[in-house]
Each structure stands twice: as C-alpha cells, then as structure tokens.
Write a sequence for this structure.
C-alpha cells in the first residue's frame, strides 16, 4: 500500500523528491498514512474541491480492502 500511494502522489506533484509518506498502524486492521508534500504542491494533491484527494483515498481504500484492512490518508502541510 505504501509504495502504491507514494507512486501515485509522486506522479501528481512537480517536486516528487519532497514527498514524505509515513505509515502508522492504529489497530490490527487500520493503517493511517500521513502525507507531506512541498507547500507549492499541496493544491495539486488536494485538487479542485478535494476531488483529487478523494480519488486517491478511494484507490487507497480499494487496495487496503484487498488486504483486509482500512486505510486513512491525511495530508499534512509542512
């Protein structure tokens, strides 16, 4: 899951080297991903009216469901 999210986000932003993705297991079947990107790229990751962020979260949920887990994506400003 980690590699998948990182791959998708790096393709969206202008500065892929500044992408930082932390993974934290909250419970047995719940994973929280904390995403940090360059301040100039935050708008690209969130998208207009949050559409891009919601699309990435939907993809992440589908990948997590295959593994029998729940995944949450948090976008953090640097």
């Amino acid at each position: 899951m980690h590699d998948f999210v990182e791959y998708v986000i790096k393709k969206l932003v202008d500065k892929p080297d500044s992408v930082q993705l932390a993974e934290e297991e909250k419970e047995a079947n719940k994973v929280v991903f904390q995403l940090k990107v360059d301040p100039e790229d935050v708008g690209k990751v969130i998208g207009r009216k949050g559409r891009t962020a919601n699309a990435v979260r939907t993809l992440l949920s589908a990948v997590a469901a295959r593994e029998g887990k729940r995944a949450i994506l948090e976008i953090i400003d640097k």
In short: The mean pLDDT is 92. The domain at 2-76 is CATH 3.30.300.20 (GMP Synthetase; Chain A, domain 3).
